[in-house]
Amino acid sequence: MTTTDTPRKVDTDSVPAVSRKRPRGAASGGLRRAIAPTALLWVLAALYGIPVLWFVLSSLKPAGDLFSLPLTLFPDDPTVSGYKEAWASANFSGYFINTIIVCVIATILTVGVSCCTGYALAKYDNKWLKAFFVCILATTMLPAEVMLAPLFLVVRDLGLYNSLSGIILPALLTATGCFMFRQFFLTVPDELIEAARIDGAKELSIFLRIMVPLSRPIMLTLAILSFQWRWNDYIWPLLMLNDPEKFTVQIGIQSLVGAQNINWSVLLGGSVISMVPLIVVFLVFQKYVMNADINAGLKD
Amino acid sequence: MTKRAPDASDVSVSPPRRRSKYTLAPLVLITGNVVLFALFFVWPAVIGLVYSFTNYTGVGSFQFVGLDNYQKLLGDSTFYSATTRTLLYTVLFVPLNFVLSLLIANVLVSKHAKGASVARIFFFIPWLLSPIIVGVLWRWLFGENFGLVNYFIEKVGGSAVPWQSNADLSLLVVVVAAAWAWTGFSMLLFIAAIKNVPTSYYEAAALDGAGPWRQFISITLPSIAPTSFIVILLNTIHAMKEYAVFASLNNGGPGTSNNLLVQYIYQTGFKSGQIGYASAASFVLMLILMVVAVIQMMVNRRVENR
Q: What is the residue range of the signal peptide feature (chain A) (predicted)?
């Protein structure tokens, strides 16, 4: 990523240098040139931001005001009663805890498994590894949605039906994760490994002591992505879980939508609560997501 | 430097001998993934294929019925409408998402646009939201009696639009919602690609008197062709297996008119317990995905050879 960023920086630095040499009129021309793109940018940003804003502000309205006309953007009398009701009535706290368990365990295991595989694919060379690399590529062709029924039978026969591990385990096989680590380890010079070998280090301890610490940024990036995938998962948990005690947040919300009469106050509150963890994670780790080379990954 | 030179040439001369020493370590490292691959990819793929030729219901014994399931699919009007609806959805979603994300990526990297780093967050947040929440959010916006959109339409003198009860309109709402939600992802790929285009190209074109539009058509578009290919491929695959947004936005409605393939598989397989039949439908979906991938690979090759 740094290689692509550097020319950009040089470029932006050189621009003011050039314009400084120009006659005075050009400076106001630069301002005028900024108006159209900036306006376009912010009109588009508004189009993307307003739905979320409207949704979040609506969730702060008391149930009685939700449909009162004329519609107002800001709640007259902001309240969190919808949130409270959702948290208490729909067993939302339970869904939340289940989802967090799934996300944390799945994320840790996904990062671990992908890191090992990515390193082996990048730094060792034999025909079995090459064959397995092709296999990993193949998984991108058959997403879980295509294999719903047989995958369900397999997980059921393994005795994992109606358990959180039935959601976690199949999700650990991700081509994206392996690719991300493979790409990263390809950039690590082989001399580093050679030097450690000459010093008498064992293969696995080279991996654990030198390579794992080096790959920390990739770990964080994949962790954020994995957390997001698992947090947002819907169809697989829906199939796997039968017991409402074990539901995840997304299933909980969808069951509110499927109700005969939608209680919008609870639904809006619950939905906003479910958005919070991801948005917090994103805002904290923004730069890792923004710099992620998702190009390599094809499957979630 | 002088010390390292023979070392490096040594590596390049005899890589097979040196590397073949290490088979145990890589094997240990990939064990986890191999087990996962066997359990959750090979096994289901094989039994899925087998079951697609049987009348298996998920429990008890089953019989091989040959190509019956596939024949039945050909005559199943529900399956047809699910397939055509899925294709229509894909054909609408992919171009819309492509245009929007390319436009936004271009505006974001433009050095004249102010506040790009803040605006980027606005485009990104929808991608974070789960498909279920995206569905709820747009259902809230496009409610027929209470939604913000119809409120404005009535405010400016129009009459309420039946966003939920007209099948085509309700599909359209999902297309827009999904494009809105997926812009962040495609945009990220485009931004990386556009930043990689050498700025000297643009400088040369500007000297030749090319305007921004001309530069976009003649430099940006051809330079980012590989990324465009990936974006289209990923979006197509994503659209073909869409389910959650529909589930929460209109539940495939009105009625069953917007049931897509994944929903069809889910319903035949899990609601009515026809695992064999659902497996056959899955393989049709897989075939479509493979055809899409092969066509796009061929197109890509042709573009690159030009």
A: none
Question: Which residues 6+ apart lie within 8 Å of B150 measured at CB?
Answer: B142, B143, B144, B160, B161, B163
Residue B58 to residue B56: CA distance in whole angstroms: 6
pLDDT tens for each residue of B38-84: 999 999 999 999 999 998 887 888 888 888 889 988 888 989 999 99
Any idea which residue has 């697989």 for tokens? Answer: A236
Put simply, the answer to whether A135 touches B25 (Cβ < 8 Å) is no
Q: What letter represents residue B296's amino acid?
A: Q
Range name among A45-59, A136-150, A240-254, B38-52 with the lowest pLDDT average: A136-150
Interface ipTM above 0.90: no
The dihedral through the CA atoms of B68, B71, B77, B80 has a sign that is positive
- Of the candidates B252, B298, B296, B288, the one whose C-alpha atom is nearest the C-alpha of residue B78 is B252
Q: CA of B278: which chain A residue's CA is closest?
A: A149
**Of A154, A164, A177, nearest to A108 (Cα)?**
A177
Cα–Cα distance, B190 to B197 (Å, whole number): 11
How many angstroms separate the CA atoms of B43 and B40, rounded? Answer: 6
- The predicted-structure confidence for A258-269, as pLDDT tens digits, reads as follows 777 888 888 999
CA distance A264 to B140: 9
Cβ pair B152, B211 in contact under 8 A: no
Find how far residue B93's CA is from the centre of its chain.
Answer: 10
- Interface probe with A: pick from B40, B57, B155, B262, most Cβ of A within 10 Å: B40
Provide, as residue numbers in chain B, all residues whose Cβ is less than 8 Å from the Cβ of A114. 33
CA distance B180 to chain A (A): 7
Burial A201-218 (b: 16+ CB within 10 A, else e): eebeebbeebbeeebeeb
**pTM strictly above 0.80:** yes
